C-alpha cells in the first residue's frame, strides 16, 4: 500500500531494462519501495538489472513478458497480481525505430506501432483491471513530447506515442473515482542508450530527472507530467504552429 506521500511499497515495471524505469525504481527503493517485479524479454540485461536493484535492498523478481504477444498479457500479468497487491505499475517499454529505414520498410514501422501502441494498450488495460480489482494503485505510462505534434523527423514513433497518450488520458478518465491513479509522463529528448546515436535536442534531460519528476507526480497525484516542465509551454506553441511554418523549423 502506498504511504501518505504516494510512494509505493511494491512496483511492477513493464519494460524491465528501460533506463528511465530503472532510474525510477532506484529512486523509489531509496524512499520506500521493497518489492519490484521487472517484466521483459528474458536476457542477461534483465537479470543484471534485477541484481543491481537487489543490491539496493529490494526483493526483485523477473517476469518473462513480451509486448508483441498481447494474448499472453492477461496470464503473465495475472500471475504477478496473484502474488499480492501491486501499488504501482510503470509502463516503460517502447522502441524508437529508425525513421528513414522504417519509411522504406513498412513492416518495421508496423513493429514500432505494435510495440509502442498495441502492446501498451493491452498491457495497460490488463494492469488497470487488476489495479481496479484490488481497489488502489497507480498506473504510470511513459509517453513522449513526440506525440504532441507530427514532425517530419520522427512521425512514425510520434504517432505511436500520440495514440498511447490519448489512450492513457481516456483510461484515466474511465478510472476516475475507482481508487486507481493514472499518470501520463511526457519526457523530451532523454540522454540514454536508445538515443545515443541521435543529435541531442534542446532541453534534453536524463533518466534520473524523469525519475525525479515521476516521484513528484506520484506525491501530487498528477495526471500529466512534463520533463522538463518548460516543455509544456514549448509544445503548446508547436501544437498550434501552422504546418507550413513547422516544416521549416529544425525540429
Tell me what the structure shows.
The protein is α/β, with parallel strands linked by helices. Helix 1 (19-31) links the parallel strand 1 and strand 2 (35-40). The protein is built from 9 helices and 7 strands, in the order E-H-E-H-E-H-E-H-H-E-H-E-H-E-H-H. The N and C termini lie far apart (42 Å). Helix 1 packs across helix 7 and helix 5 (106-134) runs parallel beside helix 6. Its EC number is 1.1.1.333. This is Decaprenylphospho-beta-D-erythro-pentofuranosid-2-ulose 2-reductase. GO terms for molecular function: oxidoreductase activity. Keywords: Oxidoreductase.
Indicate the overall shape. globular
Order of helix and strand elements from N to C terminus: EHEHEHEHHEHEHEHH
Number of strands: 7
The structure class reads alpha/beta
